[in-house]
Amino acid sequence: TLRPVHILEIYKMKILVIKFRNIGDVLLTTPLIENLHHYYPDTTIDFALNKGTEAMIEGNPYINKIHIYDRQSANSGFFKKLITEIKFIKAIKKEKYDMAVQTTTGDRGIIISKYAKIKKIVGFLGKNQSINKLLNVKAKYYENFSHTIDHNLNALRALGFEPVSKKVSVFSDESVEHLNLPKRFVHMHLTSRWMFKCANDESMAELIDYCENELGVKVVLTSDNKENELEKLASVLKICKSEPINLGGKLSLKQTIALSKRSSLFIGVDTAIMHIAAANDVPVIAFFGPSNAFEWGPWDNGLMQNGYTAQNGIQGMGKHIVYQKDWDFVPCDKEGIAKHGIEKTLMDFSDEMPKIKAKIKQNLGL
């Protein structure tokens, strides 16, 4: 039963949503934003996040202001961190928020909300019992086979509301016309900030050549401008017999969003760019290793129920599909990879090449 909401609570509130995590985590918070706007239509909604993730929220029509926390500055010494924290709290306190909604179990957002004198704090119970006592509304944490989107929306449910939408939204006003992209292309992003999430070079090179040489569809490659990612991309390209368009390290996040929106298909690993492609309603073929697909799989915006219901293996949700080993200990963490000695085999998808190629051909309508 949904609780009654007083009309003054709906129309005069200021809400701060808090997500101090990575790019993909912030992006998957956007369904919560849309639902908060639905239930509090005339309320101001702001967002607090880590520097470097703001591109996922910029341009969102439901967000009024973004508070950016500079973690790099905060990690440069005790006094610098203290000054950064105080300035950040003061900026939030100045806004006089009525409610803060934090979608992680971390302490920082709750402590900031308390010092900023925010009246109502919604969040998830963490390990620190003293911090838990600061929560006015406690949301349920992960349940079995619960996607991150549903986890975030548990904060909404704790307020007495059911989601009316689970659409992931991403925005960009960047132009990519200067890149002279082909009218039809496959977007491939083969790298992650965690190298153990990358698929083996030979399989990725084979897929690039398949699209380019056998299907006649250009491939556009992207990556972050980090040495390890650029080296990984170069390693794959050395094996390729085709000449895909390599934009590795050359695009901003906003430009990557714009490029993704123009693509016909996305192929890549579990990373924020995969979630961006799904948010752009581009079909996704994703390669998962240690991650939970039921928690982090690409979300189909046309659906309301999580399609990833198995522990591992090949599974899909709407237009998206995830390839993952069906071993009993998968998913696992980095330590688990080393423990089972699967550094070279967990992300080797050579045995699945016929199925993957058939899926590519099907998605491209060929």
Could you outline the blueprint of secondary structure elements for this entry?
Blueprint: H1 7-11, E1 14-19, H2 23-27, H3 30-39, E2 44-50, E3 66-69, H4 71-74, H5 78-95, E4 99-102, H6 108-115, E5 120-124, H7 129-132, E6 137-139, H8 148-158, E7 185-189, H9 201-214, E8 218-222, H10 227-239, E9 245-246, H11 253-262, E10 265-269, H12 272-279, E11 284-287, H13 293-296, E12 315-317, E13 320-323, H14 334-339, H15 353-363
Parallel strand pairs: 1-2, 1-4, 2-3, 4-5, 5-6, 7-8, 7-10, 8-9, 10-11, 11-13
Antiparallel strand pairs: 12-13
Summarize the structure.
By secondary structure, the chain is α/β, with parallel strands linked by helices. It has helices at 7-11, 23-27, 30-39, 71-74, 78-95, 108-115, 129-132, 148-158, 201-214, 227-239, 253-262, 272-279, 293-296, 334-339, 353-363; strands at 14-19, 44-50, 66-69, 99-102, 120-124, 137-139, 185-189, 218-222, 245-246, 265-269, 284-287, 315-317, 320-323.
Explained architecture:
It contains 15 helices and 13 strands. The protein is an alpha/beta fold. The protein has helices at 7-11, 23-27, 30-39, 71-74, 78-95, 108-115, 129-132, 148-158, 201-214, 227-239, 253-262, 272-279, 293-296, 334-339, 353-363, and strands at residues 14-19, 44-50, 66-69, 99-102, 120-124, 137-139, 185-189, 218-222, 245-246, 265-269, 284-287, 315-317, 320-323. The termini are far apart. Strands 9-8-7-10-11-13-12 form a 7-stranded mixed sheet, with helices on both faces. A 6-stranded parallel sheet has the order 3-2-1-4-5-6, with helices on both faces.
